[in-house]
Amino acid sequence: xxxxxxxxxxxxxxxxxxxxxxxxxxxxxxxxxxxxxxxxxxxxxxxxxxxxxxxxxxxxxxxxxxxxxxxxxxxxxxxxxxxxxxxxxxxxxxxxxxxxxxxxxxxxxxxxxxxxxxxxxxxxxxxxxxxxxxxxxxxxxxxxxxxxxxx
Length: 151
What we know:
The protein has helices at about 5-25, 45-55, 85-95, and strands at about 65, 75-80, 100-105, 110-120, 120-130. With about 150 residues, it is of the alpha+beta class. The chain has a domain at about 40-130: Beta Polymerase, domain 2. A five-stranded mixed sheet has the order 1-2-5-4-3, covered by helices on one side. The longest helix has 22 residues, at about 5-25. The N and C termini lie far apart (about 115 Å).
C-alpha cells in the first residue's frame, strides 16, 4: 500500500476520534469562543497613546493633535482629504481585546466629527475632528508695509 494512503487513513481516524471527544464532552460550541467578560479594561491614557500612533500613521501631523486641558477630549485638525472613518476602522481593530466601543457622529453644520470611545455609559476619550482652516488670502498691502499716505 502507498504511504500517502496510509497517512490519509490515520489522519481521518484521528479526526473522527477528536470530533467524538469534543461532542461527548460537556463543552458547548460557545465554550470555545472568547467570552466578553474576558476582555480587559482600558484607560483613557492608553486610548490616547493608541489614537496618537494611529493618527500619525494616517498622516495627521503631531501639532494637529491637541488634548483639551482638564477634559477627556482631544481636538484633531485634519486636512480636507482626511476621512475620520479611517480612524474609526483602525481604532476598532486596536480595541477589539478591550471593553470599549466606538461611537461616531458628524455635524455637517460645523464640518466636524466626534468619535467617542466608551465603556458602557462612561466616555473614556472623545476625539473632535475639525477641518484645517486654510490661511485666508489677504488682498492689498500686507500689514508689515505701511500704506502710502496721500499728501
